[in-house]
Write a structure and sequence with these properties.
With 210 residues, the protein is α+β, with helices and mostly antiparallel strands. It is 50% helix and 8% strand. Strands 2-1-3-4 form a four-stranded mixed sheet, covered by helices on one side. InterPro entries: Glutathione-S-Trfase_C-like (IPR010987), Glutathione-S-Trfase_C_sf (IPR036282), Glutathione_S-Trfase (IPR040079), Glutathione_S-Trfase_N (IPR004045), GST_C (IPR004046), GST_Zeta (IPR005955), GST_Zeta_C (IPR034330), GST_Zeta_N (IPR034333). Belongs to the GST superfamily. Zeta family.
Length: 210
């Protein structure tokens, strides 16, 4: 497998965690979203992913984009350890939380949107994340055990950790979100989350390395 990734992309990080949890070795092709006007806009990468976004994954003779689609494929083809619970209710909760983050928070504060916000980009990012986290905190109070849904790591957790990282980057006050904070802390103790962290990638700038 070959993963096209950017060290600080939360969408790429989700896939890196899944690959690490499932023990799938892979090569990384860094795609710098800032250099050369954005390497994702090159003709070569556009042929790989017409949406011109990371991540993209070459695996099993196909090209895949969109982080959750990639994770679902890995789950279907390499089911151990599973990232979706077998119980239908818990499975739905995992998907609900993942979609809450992937559709309801992250796109509103990603780089392409923030470019449009100019000097107000930090204020905008804080507003979007805070609004999303207020709802997520209430949801997690009903679903969480050690992690987002019960005591097993799931697809929801793969989405949570990168989003908390974004919140911290934009200096969001995490005080009102004790459940989110507790789960995030527990997940960051796991090796798969450590090795996939933005501070430990091949394209991480020297001053941001762990």
């Amino acid at each position: 497998p070959v993963l096209y990734s950017y060290f600080r992309s939360s969408c790429s990080w989700r896939v890196r965690i899944a690959l690490a949890l499932k023990g799938i070795p892979y090569d990384v092709v860094p795609v710098n979203l800032l250099k050369d006007g954005g390497q994702q806009f090159s003709a070569e990468f556009k042929a790989m992913n017409p949406m011109q976004q990371v991540p993209a994954l070459k695996i099993d003779g196909i090209n895949l984009s969109q982080s959750l689609a990639i994770i679902h494929y890995l789950e279907d083809t390499r089911p151990n350890p599973r990232l979706l619970p077998q119980d239908p209710k818990k499975r739905a909760q995992v998907r609900m939380i993942a979609d809450h983050i992937v559709s309801g928070i992250q796109p509103l504060q990603n780089m392409s949107v923030l470019k449009q916000m100019g000097e107000k980009k930090t204020e905008w990012a804080q507003k979007c994340i805070t609004s999303g986290f207020q709802a997520l905190e209430q949801t997690l109070k009903h679903t969480a055990g050690r992690y987002c849904v019960g005591d097993e790591v799931s697809m929801a957790d793969l989405c949570l950790v990168p989003q908390v990282f974004n919140a911290e980057r934009f200096q969001v006050d995490m005080g009102p979100y004790p459940t989110i904070t507790r789960i995030n802390r527990a997940l960051l103790e796991l090796e798969a989350f450590k090795v996939s962290h933005p501070s430990r990638q091949p394209d991480t700038p020297a001053d941001l390395r762990a």
